[in-house]
Design goal:
Chain lengths: 72, 213
């Protein structure tokens, strides 16, 4: 196998692996922490603004000055 | 201020065009690498070529807008200085849930600046490696020797282009995530052109402090 072929295959393996890890760590694990465990997403992100967001976990609504407002 | 000026319309438009192009280029590029259904190669290649030109023209117009129009000076937001480097551990601690308050020292956090700089530099590299696949002799003759010929140099350019795509995809995935959890209303403003009263207040206070572009 030539160096070019090896780099080609390893870029497939590393590219997909790192991408899946990033999705898992950020979009799944960290987002779960911020939405469900710490409530940071609703408190500090949505809480400052009059913003509504619907997620699979429920509906979030933020109003200025209010703390967590989480409706299932 | 009747209108929300957090991000001027040309900036939002350029971002939106870039976003659509990057999604299209990634899907069509991955299809060219791994044809995941039968008979779509011609369509995907044309899609890739067309989006390549659009994203390139968009980048040129964005640079012109950034350097020579009302938005001039905004490029300074992307400069990485010593205070950004010193601030990076605090930013990382904040993202890792080890620090409660966001350690803001500039309009963009240090890692945010690195990401945005990577985007435009990488786009130029992707442009060169992509065009090198089309115009091999014209673009690769000067550097083909060490590779062992123009054909092998082009094969390497294809691999570099592919690696560049992964860097783009991974950085974009992180950028999209941080924009959702860290600035959801701002993300809605940039991508979906929504305007929230809270954002307007924030923007006005930035203007009063004199640290917004």
């Amino acid at each position: 196998m030539t160096l070019l072929q090896k780099v080609n295959i390893w870029s497939d393996i590393i590219g997909f692996s790192v991408w899946f890890i990033v999705i898992g760590v950020f979009w799944i694990f960290d987002f779960f922490l911020r939405v469900v465990v710490t409530g940071q997403f609703a408190n500090t992100v949505l809480g400052k603004h009059d913003v509504k967001i619907k997620t699979v976990l429920g509906e979030y609504k933020g109003k200025p000055g209010e703390k967590l407002a989480h409706k299932h | 201020m009747a209108e929300l000026h957090y991000a001027a319309k040309p900036r939002r438009l350029a971002h939106f065009i870039h976003l659509i192009c990057i999604i299209g280029l990634t899907v069509s590029g991955l299809y060219i690498r791994f044809p995941f259904y039968h008979g779509g190669m011609e369509f995907m290649k044309w899609t890739h070529y067309v989006l390549m030109y659009i994203v390139g023209i968009n980048l040129i117009l964005r640079i012109i807008y950034c350097l020579f129009t009302v938005d001039k000076g905004a490029y300074k937001d992307l400069a990485i200085g010593w205070k950004d480097i010193k601030n990076t551990p605090a930013v990382l601690m904040y993202y890792a849930h080890m620090k409660d308050d966001y350690p803001a020292v500039a309009n963009y956090a240090s890692l945010q600046k690195v990401t945005y700089d990577v985007f435009w530099v990488l786009l130029l590299i992707q442009g060169f490696t992509g065009f090198a696949l089309m115009w091999r002799v014209e673009l690769l003759s000067w550097c083909a020797g060490p590779f062992g010929g123009v054909a092998i140099a082009a094969a390497w350019m294809r691999v570099f282009h592919y690696i560049g795509m992964w860097i783009f995809v991974i950085f974009t995935t992180i950028h999209a995530y941080l924009s959702v959890h860290e600035g959801f209303p701002i993300m809605m403003h940039w991508v979906f052109w929504k305007e929230f009263p809270g954002l307007k207040d924030e923007w006005e206070s930035h203007l009063k402090e004199g640290n917004a572009h």
